[in-house]
Amino acid sequence: MGLLAGSTVFLLTLLWGTCVVVGKCDLGPGREAVDVTDTKGFSLTGTGVTTDVQTSYAARIMGLSVIPFIIAQFPKMLKTHHGQRLAMLLALVVSFALVLAYCLYQVFQPWIQRRKLAYAKHKHVISGILRHAQMQSLGRLLNDDGTPNEQVIRKCDSFPLSQLLSVVWPVVRSLAHCFRSCRLFRKIDMDESRSLSRAELHALIVGINFEEVDFDRTDAVDKVMDDFDTSRNDVVEEEEFVQGMRKWLDEARRSVPVGGAFSSKFIHEYHERTRQEHDELVDRSDEAVESVENPGWCIAKAVALLLLGSAAAAAFADPLVDAVHGFSNATRIPSFFISFIALPLATNSSEAVSAIIFASRKKQRTCSLTFSEVYGGVTMNNTLCLGVFLALIYFRNLTWDFSSEVLIILLVCVVMALFTSFRTTFPLWTCLVAYTLYPLSLIIVYILDYVFGWS
């Protein structure tokens, strides 16, 4: 139970606040975050993140997911032992009913899946452009230590048209002059305006073979333009092109460690990883999720995976408790704080890294996906994970005595649900609210367990 409470608190406090910090952009006149624009530093009111309205719906669902905790805790609230098993059974039924309802909601309102799919396709377009650049280059784009190979970068005067993107990893602004003197850029810039229009970007994307993925080229151009056109004048100027490619390559390096590898291998691995991420989702358009072949098999597979995960959690519950108690006895650290602090950091590390990487792109759509994933993780904690826990308690005829943990979960979930359900823009100061809830939770648990003897 400490792990369940700690995981929920970690997601809604430390991770939520960190995503606001890394995803912050300048807030415009309409108090909405301006994508990939971060010039105001750490202004508490002038910077922040903006999500779409569907993300606020996910926060409301998260708030409703605490209902099973209230049902299970109801006899304790009344200070009576009568009806405890009935409350456990009712909370168990409600937990799994909410899991089923949440799954059906995502089936009939698949906006989360569509958002994931759109992002996966955009990443694959990026990786495809980088791979095309590497395949046509006259040398390695990266040195053995992962730094740019400036000798190759500076050979732009002799490159043909297809090698535009092999010359765009400058490490300092001074490399921008390569593009101004490069006949390659002039060939891409067909109207010789010293900037790239949507039509010119469309020609570049059409010229690259994306046989693995079917996507809307016009939509891909819009997203590339959104990445590069920071001045929002509907053209990509040379300096914007340089900075945009640096950002793309930095993201690729975060996703695939270079570690002395040749740049061709590094970019190939990044391309393969983005293709695999896409293949794991439904291979359909960004705007609609069409019916899939053999839906019965997909549903059966999904249910089987849920049941397998639940069975694994139930089977390893006792060994986990024994391990925590053994570590607690050896270190003289209360077992609750091990399960509340250490285990959530370990079990949620991959999800935390993924969320932070998405938020660092500093775009509304990626921030929306990030926070939706956080709220979805908490919802599954409060429904499926709690349901497994309640099943163990009910069928083993154990006593429900987790008042401090339940109080912390209710406090954090309700506060954050109310805080995030009715707004879409979060200035930087909101991260302080989330960060404050974490030590406050620890203090409350300590007082309730060791001062008032709730444990």
TrEMBL record:
GO terms for biological process: sodium ion transport. Residues 1-23 form the signal peptide. It is a multi-pass membrane protein. The chain crosses the membrane at residues 57-74, 86-108, 374-395, 407-426, 432-452. One of its GO terms (cellular component) is vacuolar membrane. The keyword Transmembrane helix applies. The keyword Zinc does not apply. It comes from Zea mays. GO terms for molecular function: calcium ion binding; calcium:proton antiporter activity. Residues 216-251 form the EF-hand domain. InterPro entries: CaH_exchang, EF-hand-dom_pair, EF_Hand_1_Ca_BS, EF_hand_dom, NaCa_Exmemb, NCX_ion-bd_dom_sf. It is found in: Cell membrane. This is EF-hand domain-containing protein. Belongs to the Ca(2+):cation antiporter (CaCA) (TC 2.A.19) family. Keywords: Antiport, Calcium, Calcium transport, Cell membrane, Ion transport, Membrane, Metal-binding, Repeat, Signal, Sodium, Sodium transport, Stress response, Transmembrane, Transmembrane helix, Transport.
